[in-house]
Amino acid sequence: MMEYRKLPRGEENEVFSTLGLGMGGIQKCSEDEIERVIRKAIDHRINFFDLCAGGRNVYAPFGRAIAGQRDKLFLQLHFGAVYNSQGDYGWSRNLKQIKDTFQWELESLGTHYTDFGFLHCVDADNDLNELITSGVLDYLKELKAEGKVRHIGFSSHTPAVANRIIDTGLVDMMMFSINPAYDFEKGDEYGIGSISERAQLFQRCERDGVGISVMKPFHGGQLLDEKSSPFGKSLTRYQCIKYALDRPGVLTVVPGVRNLIDLEQLLGFSEAPASDMDYSAVGGFIEIIDTGNCVYCNHCQPCPAKIDIGLINKYYDLSLAGDKMAANHYEKLNIKADACLECGHCDSRCPFHVTQSARMKEIAEYFKIYNH
Predict the structure, then answer these.
(1) Do 58 and 32 contact (CB within 8 A), yes or no?
(2) Which of 194, 274, 329, 354 is the most exposed place for a label (fewest CB within 10 A)?
């Protein structure tokens, strides 16, 4: 079954499918196929779409596909993504061009609002400065007040800049590139930030109620082929998606599709067995990772004491990062860390060399003190 996650600062009905869809590569299809892709995605319970489209020709067929069911869907539109006279994607900080593009997008999609208005591609401090001085951020705030934008968000590849935007208190959603190559410093120029900087950003989003939609989960397809993978070994689509969904703060993953074939390769995710999503192999790929750090892969399962080891580790890490709700979530668990039998089963299975039995003792003692 498709899993859904709620936007922390959203209304009760703002609940997103964990598998979303990106439109960055579908522009080479015919309009008929674009329409069929969107209809099929919706039929398979996908309700979240990123509309930083690779071409102007995507919007009209997308609008036809969602006609009559707009209220069931959630769309991200990017303020700064624009299209030239040939329909090719580009980006701009020109306020008039951005305003004209937004109005045209709404008309083409047959809607009067977008769920998320994103500051587009804010990768450097100068990008954010330009969006402020040009009036784009103020324009987004005006649109939100009018109800034409339900939430303000942004897309970025840079933890330091992302933190600066979150500091404003204006954003409810962040689009960020997340995959093992980027998180473990084995990626390209878009994999910005150290292991700890990226992890701390995701933890902050969870703590502060800023949702994350994930772009580039397959590292541009490179992780799917051992010849192009920076690890020299490949992962599957489902492993990459599950890896991203296990990061703190993540609500949905929006891989791009080029056609119906690409969509069909993704659709089995919600029905796939846990073994198909097991990304613990990453532990054998990485030499630079800090051993002893849990990444919540749950390869250590099944626990004889029925402890959800990955979830408890996540609550612990989030609580250490200042998330008070994480401690409350831990308290509500039926089986806590103090149920550990110290049997060593999890220690022997962890691909990241975490001594989980010792860590369970540490976690149990921490929450005992924290909550009392």
Answers:
(1) no
(2) 274
Q: Residue 27 carries which DSSP code?
A: G
Lowest mean pLDDT, pick from 34-38, 154-158, 281-285, 302-306: 281-285
* Residue 327: both structure tokens together: 């401690």
Q: Mind giving me the DSSP string for 323-371? A: -HHHHHHHHT-SS-GGG----SHHHHH-TT---HHHHHHHHHHHHHHHT
Q: Which two tokens stand for residue 64?
A: 């036809």
pLDDT in tens, 7-60: 999 999 999 999 999 999 999 999 999 999 999 999 999 999 999 999 999 999
Length of the chain: 372
What residues are paired with 83 via a beta bridge?
89
CA atoms within 13 A on the CB side of 301: 14
Rounded Cα distance between 179 and 192, Å, is 12
pLDDT tens digit sequence for 189-238: 889 999 889 999 999 999 999 999 999 999 999 999 999 999 899 999 99
**Which of 120-134, 205-219, 278-292, 312-326 is the least confident region?**
278-292
Please provide the distance, in angstroms rounded to a whole number, between the alpha carbons at the two ends of the chain: 38
User: What distance in Å separates the CA atoms of residue 270 and residue 137, rounded to the nearest whole number?
Assistant: 36
Phi, psi of 75 (to 5 degrees): -120, 140
Whole-prediction pTM value?
0.88
Query: Residue 289: pLDDT band by 50, 70, 90 thresholds?
Result: low
* One-letter amino acid for residue 80 of the chain: G
Measured CA distances, 144 to 11, 69, 137 (Å):
15, 22, 11
Closest CA to 19 of 297, 245, 212, 219: 245
What SS3 state is found at 5? strand
- 14 membership: H or E segment, kind and range: none
